[in-house]
Amino acid sequence: MPLEAVEARRLYRQVADQLRALIDSGEYAVGNRLPTERELAEQLKVSRPTVREALIALEVEGRLRIRVGSGIYVIEPAGAVPSFPAAAVMEGPFELLRAREFLEGAIAEQAARVAKREDIARIDASLTAMENVEHPGELSMVHDRAFHVAVAGSLGNAVLVRVVGELFDQRLNPYFAQLAHYFENPASWRAALDEHRAVRDAIVACDGDRARDAMRDHLAKSQKRFAQNFGTETGAAPAAGKGRATRTATKPASPKRASGKQAAAGRSRRS
To answer: For the residues 125-153, what does the mean pLDDT come to?
Structure first.
């Protein structure tokens, strides 16, 4: 028998697979309301962001409907379940934002040490464009991306520019787009714009520590905005199926956290 490639499934995909199996088995029938995010997280011994990523994945598949202020309901798929070729390896929204928080924080720190006048001009141009665009919308994402790429571009490293751009472009994946649908609005855009300005001001002040912290703060707050309560915690009851998720669900493995030390970056003078 030929060997098959071993696939390391992301934790949120494991949770989604378990919930999907419970739906397919009739544990949660069409029309039933699932336990709340908090209850699912407690039963499955995973974080609430992991549960949210799993629920969003199932909503994109057409298996669930999240009704803000009411609950999470099983629905009848409208036709064939959509198939995403990269679904098995598609990063979850929170996973992406955490990666960006780490990487772009370090980039902003170095940008404050080496950015030149022309780099600041590109950063300022993107901020001006962000101030004069409606959000949510395609143009707002274009200018938001331009800001993050401009900060990375000040380091003069094409690889970092490409990586930052590609990570930002993951916002276009169906899971991230569906999550953003619930929480992005003009108020969240104004808050994000202020956070971008804080990064810019720290870079102009040549304050690496402040630039790093401002970028990390921005991306951490982005995670908090996407983790806001759907309004489904109060009054939500378990589905009227055979039992609760833990009855047939296998406890997922706990996520591992990476650790390490950042190397100190050498200081360069702005020319």
So the answer is: 93
